[in-house]
Amino acid sequence: MTMNSLNIEGSRSTPQILCNADTGVISMRGDAYPENSFEFFHGLIDWVAQYLVETTHPLVLELYLIYMNTSSVKAMMDIFDMLEDAHRQGREVAVHWYYDPENERVVELAEEFREDLTFPFTISSVDE
Amino acid sequence: MHHIDLLSLREQFNQNQILLCFNGAISRSLIEEIGNALKNYLHEDQAKPSAAMDVFGVYIELTQNIRHYAQSRGYSEIESAATVVVAKDQDNRYQVLAGNLVERADGQALCDRVTTMATMDKAELKAAYKAQLRRPRDADQHSGAGLGLLDVARKTSQPLVSKLIETGDDKAFFSLLAVI
Hints:
The complex is a heterodimer of chains A (128) and B (180).
Chain A: E1 6-8, E2 16-20, E3 25-32, H1 37-54, E4 59-68, H2 70-88, E5 93-99, H3 104-114, E6 121-125
Helix pairs in contact in A: 1-2
Chain B: H1 6-15, E1 18-24, H2 28-44, H3 49-72, E2 82-88, E3 94-103, H4 104-118, H5 122-134, H6 137-141, H7 146-155, E4 161-168, E5 171-179
Antiparallel strand pairs in B: 1-2, 2-3, 3-5, 4-5
InterPro entries (chain B): DUF6272
Keywords (chain B): Kinase, Transferase
GO molecular function (chain B): kinase activity
């Protein structure tokens, strides 16, 4: 079975999500504060789970996320936990989070996720 | 004929430096629309991006909490009404006030939680937030407000203040003040 790519269009309260099955790169851009985050992130969570099971390729997340409500943070943590499990089993995974240097809150948000994880996780300014 | 005293309303808005206020049934799209207006106000007010994001975040968590609560209780549109105010205090700090109708017992439990949180420092709030984040979704379903309230408390410069006013029929008006 081959993996399909997944593209979710962004809106004011939800990020644009592009999952490329060929390159193993997921990019997410924008704010995330849907009322029902579990529902919104469901497709992405399924895609990541399937990708990790059905391929052996590396998986990289390129994040340009800005504001996240708490239920989106919870959903994102579920995804990072899946990456952490895969990493512990020897899979190559990484997260690169890019932020606007004007807004240090994004750095704090990313750092709080990173504290609990051991796979490569970079946080860098979009200016760099 | 009864006239609403618009001038006195306006004076009250001005006196209290109210940037934005809403009263009524709140929908998902309305939360977004008002949130967007709030972002614009904060930008025009030259709030620092980090402060603007804190105010916006507090507004989102509190209004979404109200929506989730009203839905979980199966409230009618009138019962689901939210009263939200964003203002500036004398020290030019942003204030977010949000209030809604709750079951009296739920309101009391919320007030107790706010009182407990008021005794916690930022490190303790962070630890509680992370513990709550790890709790299974179902366990959080009933009270709902757990994670959101901790997140709000972490963004404020002074402890949250809650108020509960009984309105009869075992219901009460619960309100929360967050100073960013």
